[in-house]
Design goal:
Helix content is 36%, strand content 17%. It has a 7-stranded parallel sheet, sandwiched between helices. β10, α11 and β11 form a beta-alpha-beta unit.
Length: 571
């Protein structure tokens, strides 16, 4: 296909008048049957590099994506343009999965999105055999590498899956890959001598700063300054859910109503909080690092890290969610030395030693049918004597599933043990130097926070672009004061204040007479005092709330139609 054809297709399918950067060259290369590695900053249009070829050639493009929510969002955006795309995943019921697969087999679909775990479903690969797979696209390709910041064991099997699919051309896409990770991607996916397109890292509208504190309370003072000076929308990343909830309460006391996103919320709650953030012109969301991938929101004005991230790759990916509209945005790390121990623990949990791995595997193999009575918590209590909430057991179970030694989940009675791991598999999946490499990644993050100099140069050096700014970038606190940059770049008349709680009519509630409460509000319940609302349920005309009592943080659930209560307002 000639370039004029590609440009016409771009206008027809996406409404764009021109390509950005190397997009056109990448699309033409794929249509010629080539494979490629594409490393582009977040928001630079990586997805179009495989979506456009999929729409202008016959056959199926199979896209591997790490998250169900991300797949749903991408498919919804394509379907909104009347483009033939779908996804198949575990959140769909069996009948809907089959209906979508039949549409794929009938040739009605050009883009099929799946998670890497879908290839473990018995018979899935065989069902795809009749399909004319023209392109195999691997999104967030850094997940294939054990040296990457977000290793997913099932990603590491994608090279094998590609071969079983007939070795179609492959495009691997990522925003965060060091030279070592890029080499790993090329080897795992068997890209051979396929060209690599790397568009650099520079985002001149982002100002990078580190605010070091000597006590935890000072972080809240600094965050309040940012909320007041920069406005929203904004993201605050925390490493621990307990710290996220504590920060939520501290902000609520001061009248703010932040959104929250973390792993203890239900899938519906996570989707609701994400949708509210995307739709809001000024919202603040407190989130763990699971939030942000696939969030299409161009006007995020700040990203604050409440704790140090585990490495520079994770940090760069997360700050990349700021300022996609090209407007000035602040990216600030609140550095407290004691927080480093949190990431040190996470690193230990992600790297169980071989002795523990074999003990768990032998235990599961010896249970026979009794394994159906086991759950993850019981397994923790058996093997972890001190911190039973650490993640080593979950890591071991993920690795065993990837090896094919087991399938299903312990906590929903679908677990099945198949075989013991081989010595070769253990050596491959538990390499001797992975723990050391992960610790080195954390050390690089600490050096970024503590050592003077241009912060953007430090990030560029880490990703293989040495001395990218010989005279400094001019957009970090290594060279200029963050306050002066804000004064220069931010127009006070355009700042969107992060919303406080809006006053509403007070009153007692009986039988639902008062307006319903929302998550984040404070209520006073007779006999229990002041309570923070953490979840609201509406069922058959009744409103129930899960709360934490302020006096002792005890959780309680109340039916608001059966208790005396009143809303506490802040003004």
């Amino acid at each position: 296909m000639t370039r004029p054809d590609l440009r016409e297709a771009l206008r027809t399918h996406f409404g764009f008048a021109s390509f950005r950067g190397p997009q056109e060259a990448i699309c033409a290369h794929l249509l010629d049957g080539g494979s490629a590695l594409v490393v582009m900053p977040t928001g630079d249009g990586k997805s179009l590099c495989y979506q456009l070829p999929a729409l202008v050639q016959q056959g199926l493009t199979l896209v591997v994506s790490p998250l169900i929510a991300l797949m749903d969002d991408q498919v919804a955006a394509l379907r909104a343009r009347d483009l033939p795309a779908t996804c198949i995943h575990s959140m769909l019921d069996g009948a809907e999965r089959e209906r979508r697969l039949q549409a794929v087999l009938a040739g009605e679909i050009r883009l099929l999105y799946v998670t890497p775990e879908r290839f473990r479903v018995p018979g899935f690969l065989e069902r795809l055999e009749p399909c004319d797979i023209q392109l195999f696209a691997v999104d967030e390709a850094h997940c294939v590498s054990q040296w990457g910041h977000d290793f997913r064991p099932d990603y590491a099997r994608l090279g094998e899956m590609r071969r079983l699919l007939g070795n179609p051309p492959c495009i691997a896409l990522t925003a965060t890959a060091t030279p070592d990770v890029q080499t790993d991607i090329q080897q795992v996916l068997d890209l051979g001598d396929a060209p690599a397109w790397h568009t650099g890292l520079e985002r001149p509208n982002l100002f990078l700063s580190v605010h070091e504190v000597d006590r935890g309370e000072a972080k809240l003072d600094r965050l309040l300054e940012i909320l007041d000076r920069v406005g929203g929308p904004g993201i605050v990343y925390t490493a621990l859910i307990k710290d996220l909830l504590a920060l939520e309460s501290a902000l609520q006391v001061r009248g703010y109503r932040p959104l929250v996103y973390h792993g203890k919320l239900s899938a519906n709650e996570r989707r609701s909080q994400q949708a509210r953030f995307v739709e809001s012109p000024d919202a603040l969301v407190l989130a763990t690092n699971a939030f942000g991938m696939g969030v299409d929101k161009p006007d995020v004005r700040f990203v604050v890290h409440w704790q140090v991230p585990r490495n520079l790759e994770a940090y760069y990916q997360e700050i990349g969610r700021a300022g996609r509209d090209g407007e000035p945005s602040l990216c600030e790390l609140l550095y407290f030395e004691e927080d480093v121990s949190i990431q040190r623990e996470f690193t230990d949990w992600a790297n169980p030693d071989r002795e523990l791995f074999l003990r768990v595997a032998d235990h599961l193999a010896g249970l026979g049918e009794r394994v159906q009575a086991l759950d993850v918590q019981s397994l923790r209590e058996t093997f972890l004597l001190k911190n039973r909430r650490d993640g080593r057991i979950e890591t071991i179970l993920r690795l065993l599933r990837t090896m094919g030694c087991c399938s299903g989940e312990l906590d929903d009675n679908t677990f099945e043990w198949h075989r013991a791991p081989t010595a070769e598999e253990i050596a491959e999946w538990l390499p001797d130097d992975k723990h050391r490499r992960d610790l080195e990644g954390l050390l690089a993050m600490v050096r970024y926070a503590r050592e003077p100099g241009c912060r953007k140069n430090a990030i560029h050096d880490h990703f293989g672009f040495e001395n990218a700014f010989e005279d400094g970038c001019g957009t970090c606190d290594g060279e200029r004061n963050v306050a002066s940059w804000l004064d220069e770049r931010l127009d006070p008349t355009r700042i969107r204040p992060v919303p406080h709680r809006q006053p509403s009519e007070r009153g007692s509630a009986k039988g639902g007479a008062a307006p319903p409460v929302e998550r984040g509000e404070w209520i006073e319940v007779r006999g229990h005092g002041l309570c923070a609302v953490v979840r609201v349920h509406h069922h058959r005309g009744r409103t129930q709330v899960d709360v934490e009592r302020a006096r002792d943080l005890t959780p309680r659930t109340f039916d608001l139609g059966r208790v005396k209560w009143r809303r506490i307002e802040n003004s």
